[in-house]
UniProtKB/TrEMBL annotation:
Alphabetized UniProt keyword annotations: Hydrolase, Magnesium, Manganese, Metal-binding, NAD
Name of protein: NAD(+) diphosphatase
GO cellular component: cytosol
Species for this entry: Mycobacterium spongiae
Domain Nudix hydrolase intervals: 162-287
Broadest EC class assigned to this enzyme: hydrolase
GO biological process: NAD+ catabolic process; NADP+ catabolic process
PANTHER family associated with the record: NAD-CAPPED RNA HYDROLASE NUDT12, NUDIX HYDROLASE, NUDC SUBFAMILY
Cofactor: Mg(2+); Zn(2+)
The family this protein is said to belong to: Belongs to the Nudix hydrolase family. NudC subfamily.
Gene giving rise to this polypeptide: nudC
Catalytically driven reaction(s): a 5'-end NAD(+)-phospho-ribonucleoside in mRNA + H2O = a 5'-end phospho-adenosine-phospho-ribonucleoside in mRNA + beta-nicotinamide D-ribonucleotide + 2 H(+)
Length: 307
């Protein structure tokens, strides 16, 4: 049984113009600072959300020009530049009485593609800068460059760019009416999702799918097929989604201790769980599934929608 994603995952949608040419034309990028918007991301990767959009302040209220630690995110409607900075969140304006502080995992409420892209990019870049202040080659302190999209060794001129760690996530099904869901040992009871794992050196995505599933629950899978991808900046991952065929008659075995339990669930059981909400729900459903921010949710919904 083949299927496709019903929707583009929230964090994978096209929103703002990245305007990557301005990263190497910093004079032009800085020239837009006076009218630019500023996204503040606090030390816990939280932003301010109001009316279904991320709250953007005026950059000029921060400084007369971009500080070295600011990152250039691109341009939004009207060509307005947007920068981001790691800083405490400011109190919302009076015209935003319903503003709330949320992190990226709570952005399922955002209906605006531009907001989701800005927050995802800002979180990934700022997290990378926090952990990449010294050269991986010789330990020399590095400096931000290219509007925050690189760091440069001031002695050698060597540039380092944001790392992306690819990880696979896979829905295993029997080609019919059943799919595998699993619970990590650190998760609360009833909280289930798909199996996932990081790609190792010298390994293709498809080989990684088969290896991770065999290591985590002991199943052999075949016919691994690509579905879609989603950035996941915790701290710098790219989730690559697949589905694959498995045999319900094969016993589970939990080799690495990461998975506490797994089971085959019918499409009706999964549909019932989806209707009950997500991990944050107070429902007494036997299954609690991931929230809408996650590609896992989109994959599960797409499989459950099949007749």
């Amino acid at each position: 049984m083949d299927f496709r994603l019903r929707n583009v995952p929230l964090l994978s949608r096209v929103g703002a113009d990245r305007a990557d040419h301005l990263r190497t034309d910093l004079d032009a990028a800085i020239a837009g600072w006076a009218d630019a918007a500023l996204l503040r991301v606090d030390s816990r990767n939280r932003v301010l959300l109001a009316n279904g959009r991320v709250v953007l302040g005026a950059a000029i209220t921060l400084a007369d020009k971009p500080p070295p630690e600011a990152v250039f995110l691109g341009r939004i409607e009207g060509g307005r530049h947007v920068w981001a900075i790691r800083a405490a969140l400011e109190p919302p304006d009076d015209d935003e009485p319903d503003a709330k502080v949320v992190d990226l995992r709570g952005l399922g409420l955002i209906i605006d593609d531009t907001s989701s892209q800005l927050v995802s990019s800002a979180t990934a870049l700022l997290n990378w800068h926090d952990g990449s202040r010294f050269s991986a080659l010789d330990g020399t302190p590095t400096k931000p460059a290219r509007g925050g999209w690189a760091r440069v060794n001031p002695i050698t001129g060597h540039e380092e760019f944001p790392r992306i760690d690819p990880a696979v996530i896979c829905l295993i099904h029997d080609g019919g009416d059943r799919a595998v869901l699993a619970r990590q040992a650190v998760w609360p009871e009833r909280m289930f999702s798909l199996l996932a794992g990081f790609v190792e050196a010298g390994e293709s995505f498809e080989v990684c799918v088969a290896r991770e599933i065999r290591e985590e629950i002991g199943l052999d899978v075949r016919d691994v097929r690509y579905l879609g991808s989603q950035p996941w900046p915790f701290p710098r991952s790219l989730m690559v989604g697949f589905h694959a065929l498995g045999d319900p008659d094969q016993d589970f075995s939990f080799h690495d201790g990461e998975i506490a339990e797994a089971g085959w669930f019918t499409r009706d059981e999964v549909r019932t769980a989806l209707e009950a909400g997500d991990w944050t729900s107070s429902s007494r459903s036997k299954l609690l599934l991931p929230g809408s921010i996650s590609i896992a949710r989109v994959i599960i919904e797409s499989w459950a929608a099949r007749e």
